[in-house]
Amino acid sequence: MLKLHYNLEKISMGLVAAIIVAASIGGLVEIAPLFTLDETVELPGDLRPNTPLELAGREIYMREGCYACHSQMVRSLADELDRYGPYSLASESAYDHPMLWGSKRTGPDLARLGGKYSDDWHVAHLIDPRSVVPASIMPSYPWLTRPLDTALLPDALATLARLGVPYDKEMIAAAEADALAQSRPGTEAADGFQARYGARPAVQAFDGDPSRLTELDALIAYLQSLGTLTDAPYRALAEGAP
Amino acid sequence: MTATLTLPERRIGLFLSVLLALMGLFMAAAARHGVMSLHGFMALGLGLGLVFLIGGSLYDPAPPHRRPDRYYDAPTRFGLTLTLVWAIIGMGVGVWVAALLYWPEATPPWPATSFGRLRPVHTTGIIFGFGGNALIATSFHVLQRTSRARLADSISPWVVVLGYNLFCAWAVTGYLMGSTQSKEYAEAEWYADLWLVVIWVTYFTLYLRTLARRNEPHIYVANWYYLAFILVVAMLHIVNNLALPVRLTTAESFPVWSGVQDAMVQWWYGHNAVAFFLTAGFLGMLYYFLPVRSGRPIWSYRLSIVSFWGITFFYIWVGSHHLHYTALPYWAQTLGMTFSVMLLVPSWASAGNAIATLNGAWHKVRDDATLRFMFVAAVFYGLSTFEGSFLAIRPVNSLSHYTDWTVGHVHSGTLGWVAMIIFGAIYTLVPQLGGKRQMASPRAIEWHFWLAVTGTLIYVIAMWNAGITQGLMWRAYDRNGALSYSFVQSVQAMAPYYLLRTIGGALFLTGAVLCAWNCRATLRGAREGAADRPLVPQPAE
């Protein structure tokens, strides 16, 4: 063996080839099966993709680096189930490009955040966290009251559709209008939105002001959707699945 | 820079600079507004600056001496300067965001200075700016010395150093403006990622071409590590960053991976960024500068072979230990855990080999702060790889994951191991580059050493306590079977530790500033470069 290496280290391309082989095996064994084994991700029938407004909110969530302090992954541990809710399933993030599971909880996990607090609470909390949670160390985000830029949404949906997220042509074409409609309950546009996305996504004036579409609208729409895209985790927990 | 180039080389440089400026102009014009346009202007500015720099000195006198018999150290010197600039940026931002966690009201009301945007500036500034520049700069030095040959050409090292720093600058300015892929340690957007691929191919080609000119039959072990660093980082970078841009004229893109596959690819990348960026490359540095400074040969050749292949093979498997108890299939988690524990063997083989090399030179460790930096680096390398294997064990991870223990672990590696070996290498290299016998102020090295060690220990111990406290509070139940603490109570409990870590970080930063000052004082007015020469056949009389 030593003799073999003694000769190998005289040939630079030999070293290069050996490094590539040695460093490829682990990745191939661990990653490739995740794409081929069906049981890795079982898509539940009721899983819906994010609406355009939620997607815009997700981009803001990423832009502000929320993922650096908040995870979106409830582990299958008793205290996490008691604190946050049912443990996360792989299918829940099947449409998430990229996933936002996170790696650090400077603040709490957000996987089950949707519906836990009112829209008003979120507005107050994002503008000034310490007004509702005095001991919070989260920064304030006063600039989120600015208007939401929706210009990229149709292309964003189209790109995601190419990657396999089930957005149809109609959804892509109406993306900008739908973003606006989701924050204006009781309008004709809101009916059109619900015709495309069903009755499950909330249609609300998320920031409390239906006359303006703001970044707050988008971010709160996204936060309120967390954990509500499918009921599968609740069913899995009730059935006592592994 | 230009004084070391011949006229034809200056012409090539001029041509490439014009090309860079045109690329920047094209990017800025195509994107019209937003991040990508600003990045276009940055490339345009760099290109134009280089055009003026090279054009202005095009017909200056050519370098005086015959060149194949001199090592080419100008890119190393420039790279080390950038290393120190990034050190101060990265560590400065780190200390600032650490302070914000203790004192969140101090956050200025502008988007660009928010914690979430500054945090990747800290990580990218340190890993890629500080660490990457140090790796590139020292690799040029080590490659030439261990091959006893000059770099294969004089243009591509500049392409690598300047191009790489353009990538870093694009990345951090992008985060400040809210442009991010949100993949940890790979936040830069798609065009920056593509640019880095071009730079990396140039780097790899330069490395192989120089190795091909070597005057030593064997490729020295430091180069195996640098090669593994270059190759595997390329592989990780390309696969993890595969993305579809929303439009070719915007920075926004979507990764092709989603959900659980994305998580696995991300942590395969994430942990191997630790392995091949923050470990392999720096082991290359250790394997060269430790023997050079201590005047002792590497203790065991066999051990270095075993540990090199062990690290290259085992590390790639361990990424999934970041995903214990998550929706990643159980078998993949178990594989990650198993290989993480096995990884301790090659890791400790390396650390042990380094420490055993110092046998017979312990009096130098006592007297020479530079060598002591390297010794402490090897010790912290051993400690943090042990901690890493320990934290990867599933039940341990159930407590430590998501807490500040992970942050403490990372910093015992980056402050204790990576930064210490960089400073050791810098203090060895800079006097040589300046043609001096020693650094301008040996006392400042001593001060730096103790500031760095004290800062690291305060930081790491504070974060151990913080993480274990968090983990225990989150899982504590009271007598009635209810959770004992609300989440925000665990946040409140962190305050003293966050203050301590800020102090530890500030001490470490102070040391780095001392180092930068000391290097500047040493290099100021230096004319003669390194005294050693490559092996060149001499013509017969």
TrEMBL record, chain A:
The lineage of its organism: Bacteria, Pseudomonadati, Pseudomonadota, Alphaproteobacteria, Rhodobacterales. InterPro entries: Cyt_c-like_dom, Cyt_c-like_dom_sf, Cyt_c_oxidase_monohaem-su/FixO. This is Cytochrome c oxidase cbb3-type subunit 2. The chain crosses the membrane at residues 12-35. Keywords: Heme, Iron, Membrane, Metal-binding, Transmembrane, Transmembrane helix. It comes from the Bacteria. Residues 52-227 form the Cytochrome c domain. NCBIfam families: ccoO, PRK14487.1. The keyword Membrane applies. One of its GO terms (molecular function) is metal ion binding. Gene3D superfamilies: 6.10.250.2250, Cytochrome c-like domain. Pfam families: FixO.
Automatic annotation (TrEMBL), chain B:
Cu cation binds at H271, H321, H322. It is found in: Cell membrane. The chain crosses the membrane at residues 12-31, 37-59, 80-103, 123-143, 155-178, 190-212, 224-248, 268-289, 301-318, 330-349, 370-393, 413-430, 450-477, 497-517. It is a multi-pass membrane protein. Binds 1 copper ion per subunit, denoted as copper B. Binds 2 heme groups per subunit, denoted as high- and low-spin. It comes from the Bacteria. Residues 1-541 form the Cytochrome oxidase subunit I profile domain. Heme b 2; high-spin binds at H409. Its cofactor is heme b; Cu(2+); heme. InterPro entries: Cyt_c_oxase-like_su1_dom (IPR023616), Cyt_c_oxase-like_su1_sf (IPR036927), Cyt_C_Oxase_1 (IPR000883), Cyt_c_Oxase_su1_BS (IPR023615), Cyt_c_oxidase_cbb3_su1 (IPR004677). One of its GO terms (cellular component) is plasma membrane. GO terms for biological process: electron transport coupled proton transport; oxidative phosphorylation; respiratory electron transport chain. The keyword Membrane applies. It catalyses: 4 Fe(II)-[cytochrome c] + O2 + 8 H(+)(in) = 4 Fe(III)-[cytochrome c] + 2 H2O + 4 H(+)(out). Keywords: Cell membrane, Copper, Electron transport, Heme, Iron, Membrane, Metal-binding, Respiratory chain, Translocase, Transmembrane, Transmembrane helix, Transport. Its EC number is 7.1.1.9. GO terms for molecular function: cytochrome-c oxidase activity; heme binding; metal ion binding. Pathway: Energy metabolism; oxidative phosphorylation. Heme b 1; low-spin binds at H122, H411. The keyword Cytoplasm does not apply. It is an enzyme of class 7 (translocase). Belongs to the heme-copper respiratory oxidase family. This is cytochrome-c oxidase.
